[in-house]
Every structure is written in structure tokens, then in C-alpha cells.
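Explain this record to help learners:
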Amino acid sequence: MSRTTSFSSDPLGQALQDYQRGHHSATITVHSNVADEEPLPAAYFFRSLWEMPELERTALDECRGRVLDLGAGAGCHSLELQSRGFQVKAVDISAGAVQVMQERGVQEVACHDIFEDALGAEKYDTLLLLMNGIGLAGTLEGLERFLAHARTLLAPGGQILATSSDISYLYEDEDGSLLFDLNGPYYGEVEYTMQYGQQEGHTFHWIFADASILQDYAEAAGYQVEFLGEDDQQQYLVRLTVQ
């Protein structure tokens, strides 16, 4: 069953459309259960290659074959890969984002969430999940489910290239000790709500999987794990290949 986001509850898509139409100050407000509200400029989704962080540029350099760009936003990664001659399918749950990508020239676009069976109609050499893209899995249970589902999307020898972050720093006390409940939910499971103007979206789950737990879940799902880089904000790039 599709869980695409309709225009009536799609603040991200509306902000991207406004930016596309020349309102370059369009900014989303992001609410979460772990931090104060934060502004997210729509411009972030329209970055050129040299505005992207090094981890994302590395991921683009590591792409091969037919690429499935999951959570593609306004299509900045897909457009860069297209310019390099790749065949790319860009997917996002936001109907507004999909429309923007079509207007920007992304050649193959679909409105799906990452778990839809329809994605498995063809196989891909690279699954690309950037901008903390592993977060699309939502929870640890969702991560386990996604890693199993991804195997049905990969061609023989295929790979997953994804970024995620360790957000344990949000729970650090002044003396450096960590203050999360070890008996509670995993600290990287976050609830978000996006707001743009008067339009507020549905609350959704997002997971920031630290490197060790990502490795544990990926190896349990039968993947070989290779970490390709890490930045000074505890974000990392990982390549997963089926063993």
C-alpha cells in the first residue's frame, strides 16, 4: 500500500515548490522530540555538487550501474549522476518533491516510500540514501525490515551507499557522560514534524544509527560492511554489499 504524502500534508514538498518558483527564502521548521526546533532552508535540497559535503561527493563517485536514489528530495544527487551518464530512478514520499524533480529535469521519478513492493519490479546496482538517508527506515525494527527489503532491489553484485550519524552527543552531560535510558528505546530513534507556514505535516520516525549498531544489523542481514568516511559531525558513509 502506498504511503505517499499528499499535497495537503506535505510541508517539505510545498517549500521545495516555492523555492523552485523563485521564493529562495523558503524555510521549513523542523520539530523533534530530542532538540529545539530548527530551521531547514529549502535551498539545502538544491545544492550543486561543490556545495555538498565531502561524504556525499564520495558517495556519488562510488555509484555504479543503475542507481535508485531513495529520499531524493529536489533531486540534486540524481541530477548530478544524470550529468555523468548514469541511469537513475529518483524516489520520494513527497508528492511535491516529485513534481519539483520532474520540473528540474530528473528523467525518471516516482512517488513511493522505501518499503513499497513496486520498487522491486526491477533491480539496481546502487541504492543511494544520502542526507542521513538511513533515517528513512524510521526505527531499528524498520532498519531490519529495510535491509531485508533492499536485498530484493539489488542486482547481483549490487551495493547500498548510505549516510547516517551518531547523535549520542545530544545526550552528553557537562562531564561527558551519556544520559540516555539504556532500558528505553534506542537513543537514535527520533520523532520529527515538519512545518512550513501554516502547513504542518504528520509526525514521522527517523533513525540515526550509530556505526556499530548499523554494522550489527547489516551483518545480521547478510551484508558485508565497509565504512568509506566520517566527518567531524559524527556522520559517516557506509557501503553495504550482499555477501
In short: The radius of gyration is 17 Å.
